[in-house]
Amino acid sequence: MGIEWMRRHLAPDYRVHTISFKDPNPMHIDATFNIIGPGLVLSNPDRPCNEIDLFKKAGWTILHPPLPLIPDNHPLWMSSKWLSMNVLMLGEKRVMVDANEIPIQKLFESLVSSRSVNLF
Predict the structure, then answer these.
(1) pLDDT tens track of the chain, all 120 residues?
(2) Which strands, in side-by-side order, build the sheet including 33-37?
(3) pTM for the full predicted model
(4) N or C: which end of the chain has fewer CB within 10 A?
């Protein structure tokens, strides 16, 4: 239903596609596939997008985030270690990231101006 509403309201200027992921327990799209700017997406290497070629053919840059630092024994509470992908884009060149996740900070520092915040 929602996708049909999007198609009706965005057409004819935009095409809306359904995408799926190799994820047996989908919960949080922002820790699976996160659009971080025009033509730029973070794609979780553990849960690849089945339609990634659609993005590549359209000229998108696909980035795989670095492995998160969160320990494997962390309880996670209905989440995943990939919460490091859950970032807040403040604009095309500004982003807030978890202060404890240095690897993803370094990724964003190579792309945009980043600001770290403590989530735990």
Answers:
(1) 789 999 999 999 999 999 999 988 887 888 999 999 999 999 999 999 999 999 999 999 999 999 998 877 877 776 788 889 989 999 888 899 888 899 999 999 888 766 677 766
(2) 33-37, 40-43, 61-63
(3) 0.81
(4) N
